[in-house]
What does this fold into?
Amino acid sequence: MMTEANLSQTERRFLTAILALIVVLVGFDLLTDSNEGVRWPHLAIELSVAIGAAAGIYLLMRESFRKTHQLVQSREIIIAKEKETERWQLESQKYIQGLGIAIDAQLARWSLSPSEKEVALLLLKGLSLKEIADIRKTAEKTVRAQSVAIYSKAGFAGRSELSAFFLEDLLLPCGSSENEASRL
It folds into this structure.
């Protein structure tokens, strides 16, 4: 059974139109029946149908407004995150460039081949071996062999030691304040 949460905007509009048509037709029928002297139980049933259809319209419209509000909020959050990311990138650009140069120099000191350098950088970005193989359009076995060669040339046991080599000193010690960071 289809629930309201699964309804698209088009489906909600279609159902709202059907329910509105029901309200109008039942309302018209109520008027004609009451003028013709139809018994009150029959009128009560028709009135309950009209009220039920009106309640359905209300629920569908409320859900549409709620979803629109959520969409607006989500867009605002995305815009705020994009601005935050842009600000961080601008503030840290010179440091990131310097770090990139330093990482490249260290990879050269380890005598990594160009392919191994590329794999090492992708490992540092946190990509899986499969993702690296897909990006480089090579076999996962090849990437695994290259990563083993990287760890061996660098003298590390694995990816975590490789990452820690470059990133460990970038992190402030626990309990450090922003004031201490700005003095560095």
Residues 110-184 form a domain with the Arc Repressor Mutant, subunit A fold (CATH 1.10.10.10). The radius of gyration is 32 Å.
